[in-house]
Amino acid sequence: MAIFGSIIKSLIDLKESFTTEGEAEKNQEEVLLGLLKKAKDTSFGKHYKFEEILESENIQLEFSKRIPYFDYNKIDKEWWHKYHEGEENVTWPGKPPYFALSSGTTGKSSKRIPVTDEMMESIRKAGIKQVGALSNFDLPPDFFEKEIMMLGSSTDLQKEGDHQEGEISGISASNIPFWFRSYYKPGEEISKIDEWDDRVQKIAENAKEWDIGALSGIPSWMELMLKKVIEYHKVDNIHEIWPNLQVYTSGGVAFEPYEKSFNALLGKPVQVIDTYLASEGFLAIQNRPDTHAMKLILDNGIYFEFVPFKAEYINQDGSITDDAPVISLADVEEEQDYVLLISTVSGAWRYLIGDTIKFTDKEKHEIRITGRTKFFLNVVGSQLSVNKMNDAVQELEDQFDIKIPEFVVAAKRAEDGEYYHYWYLGTEDKVEDDNLAEALDNALKSANKNYKVARGKALKGVKVTTIDPNLFHEWNALNKKKGGQVKMEKVMNEEKLEKWENFLKDQGATS
Predict the structure, then answer these.
(1) For the chain, N or C: smaller number of CB within 10 Å?
(2) How far apart are the first and last CA of the chain?
């Protein structure tokens, strides 16, 4: 009998029974108040007169009036670069002990995002909330005695002057509490291996020694790891190696595009739980079954604002216009896309994280990630967001009974002078490209009126090329690296498309 697991499960259940929901809007007001008080004597706080904001009758309104929007390039150029020149108290008191490296989806150069001690505590508390939410899922007591495979970036952080640098998953894993280390796999030694392929090889070699009950990581890289383990041990599915695997905690991107290909690696269903941990903070967790929506964490050092995701408010580089309106938590509407802004205990202020979200349940404050501001395809008025693209690709999977875990799209003027959308679909299944193009075009026309209008005017048609899904991973390896927080870009401009198409030719994938 799983006695230890029963004790842990009962403690989680007890904790949840005494946890009250609280008033979300009041929690957010208190978070903002705490942020402003803490940072009022920093260079940023003095420049934007936080003291005066704190004395105003409506702190939230005054805050939104006085502080401009910042994307990474702007806040780094104006403020964060000063940390690397030896300054303290720039946008947050003191100096951050860590910087999270995030190449994101845009190239080799990494962003360097400050991670303070307060942010590490915020991430820890969010993790505890996630564990507590497990009481809402029908998991047996023995699940709480199994090991957890956390597939992130290397925990071998790089020392740079007075701070350390690494991806946020590596920083978090290097700070796991001592009591959790016996559950954590692949363990400290393997987790420090920097090269993705070498790390996964070691995981495969040691896989049978572990009793894995849960997986955690970005879907694309999780799939590759599972395939490697299955291939190494010459079995049909991962449950032949880890029979007690019951939970997969997904993060970083929407899971749905990977669902079909991921499930093909399993011997039996697992509970998929979505999370929203970004380089800038732990923002949301899925706290109940039967949904892919995640609950915003509103009392944990992050203040949220929302900008309507409309073409007139989005610049070509994915940033937002200075006059874009902001919507408070109290005034958001369900099923409307918003650009997410955050202010945090790491000294990010009205920061454009780059993601778009929608509220699926306003009362529960549940959201879903719908895409990236840079993945907004609007060259000829089609106004396609990533969630519309994902939905259309899923329709193809259902219609043709195939798996398409990866794709990329770009708008390009062809030799006839007309604009086309060029789609590259990653699939190992065989379907005629022309048939996929017709079905994809029809799905997008049905789902998006702007796309339908564009197809009748400036957008001539759709061209589809199917390729090996592994080519997407090799492209990432060439341009950034494998594993960790790296995500495949979904939308390319013409310059990037040319490089992508040359890469495919070099790989012999296209003529």
Answers:
(1) C
(2) 61
CB count in 10 Å sphere of residue 25: 14
d(CA 82, CA 89): 10
pLDDT at residue 482, rounded to an integer: 63
Count how many residues are written for the chain. Answer: 511
- Tokens 């670069």 -> residue: 81
Residue 339: strand pairing partners: 307, 356
Our CA dihedral for 479, 151, 368, 393, rounded to 10 degrees, sits at 60
pLDDT reported for residue 118: 96
Handedness of CA 158, 163, 168, 170 (dihedral sign): positive
pLDDT, tens digit, for every residue of 400-455? 999 998 999 888 888 887 888 899 999 999 999 999 999 998 998 887 777 787 77
**HEC per residue, 77-135:** HHCHHHHHHCCCCCCCCCCCCEEEEECCCCCCCCEEEEECHHHHHHHHHHHHHHHHHHH
Nearest to 279 by CA among 112, 126, 35: 112
Q: Which is it for strands 247-251 and 271-278: parallel, antiparallel or unpaired?
A: parallel
Question: What's the CA dihedral at 20, 123, 224, 377 to 10 degrees?
Answer: 90
Q: How far apart are CA 127 and CA 300, in angstroms?
A: 11
Instruction: For residue 260, give the nearest of 436, 411, 428 by alpha carbon.
Output: 428
Multiple choice CATH, 3-19+119-285, 3.30.230, 3.90.580, 3.40.50, 3.30.70: 3.40.50
Residue ranges of domains in the chain:
3-19+119-285, 24-83+296-374, 377-506
Residue with tokens 């999780």: 222
What is residue 486's predicted lDDT score, i.e. its pLDDT?
66
The alpha carbon of residue 123 and the mean position of all alpha carbons in its chain are separated, in whole angstroms, by 15
For the chain, counts of helices (H) and of strands (E): 17, 19
Closest CA to 285 of 60, 135, 485, 481: 135
CATH architecture observed for domain 377-506: 2-Layer Sandwich (3.30)
How many CA atoms lie less than 13 Å away from 395 in the CB half-sphere? 18
Instruction: Pick out the chain residues at pLDDT < 50.
Output: 1-8, 11, 14, 17-19, 105-108
Strand order in the sheet with 212-217: 184-185, 147-151, 212-217, 247-251, 271-278, 281-285, 294-296, 366-372, 351-361, 337-344, 302-308
Instruction: Determine the residue type at 3.
Output: I
For residues 139 and 229, what is the distance between their CA atoms, to the nearest angstrom?
A: 25
For residue 245 the two structure tokens come to: 């695997």
Q: Are 252 and 485 in contact (CB under 8 A)?
A: yes
Does the pTM surpass 0.85? The reply is no
What pLDDT is attached to residue 70?
Answer: 95
